[in-house]
Write a structure and sequence with these properties.
This protein has 102 residues and is mainly beta. It is 0% helix and 37% strand. β3 and β4 form a beta hairpin. It is elongated.
Length: 102
């Protein structure tokens, strides 16, 4: 009996792992645009956070975001990866532009 192992990813230092949020794009006329016509998503859900930036004096500065936050990130920032068929982006905290508050 094979058991499914869920892969966990832990970012280092001041990096975060974000799951992009794909938003369905519909024109004013009601036409749904295909994936090839869409721009890259710039919003996502924070899945994991690193331990924080290490300063020259040895002090560690914690990140301003936490797991579960919805963030807006730089359009072409980060590194895209795929794990178990799911797409993620690893970003430096400086590539995050805002936290979306409800």
């Amino acid at each position: 009996m094979a058991s499914e192992v869920k892969v966990m990813i832990k970012p280092l230092a001041d990096r975060v792992v974000v799951e992009p949020i794909e938003e369905e794009v519909t024109t004013k006329g009601g036409i749904v645009l295909p994936d090839t016509a869409k721009e890259k998503p710039q919003r996502g859900k924070v899945i994991a956070v690193g331990s924080g930036k290490l300063l020259d004096n040895g002090e560690r500065v914690p990140l301003e975001v936490k797991e579960g936050d919805i963030v807006v990130f730089a359009k072409y920032g980060g590194t895209e990866i795929e794990i178990d068929g799911e797409e993620y982006i690893i970003l430096s905290e400086r590539d995050l532009l805002a936290v979306v508050e409800k």
